[in-house]
Amino acid sequence: MTPKTHNRYDFVVVSNRLPVDRIISPEGDASWQHSPGGLVTALEPVMQATDGAWVGWAGQPDLEFEPFVSDGIHIVPVALSADDIENYYEGFSNDTLWPLYHDVIAPPSYHREWWESYVAVNRRFADAAVAVAAEGAVVWVQDYQLQLVPKMLRTARPDLTIGFFNHIPFPPYGIYSQLPWRTQIIDGLLGADVIGFQRVADASNFQRAARRLLGSVTKSAYIEVQADDATGAASRRVLAKAFPISIDSSSFEEMARDPAIQARAREIREGLGNPKTVMLGVDRLDYTKGIGHRLKAFGELLAEGRIEVEDVTLVQVASPSRERVAAYMQLRDEIELTVGRINGDFGTMSHQAISYHHHGYPREEMVALYLAADVMLVTALRDGMNLVAKEYVASRFDDDGVLVLSEFAGASDELRRSLRINPHDIDGLKDAIVQAIEMPRVERQRRMRSMRKLVLANDVARWSAEFLTALRAAGDNNATDDDDDALGELEVTIERIRRR
Ligand code: G6P
Question: How close is the Cα of 12 to the center of ligand 1, in Å?
Answer without folding.
Answer: 20
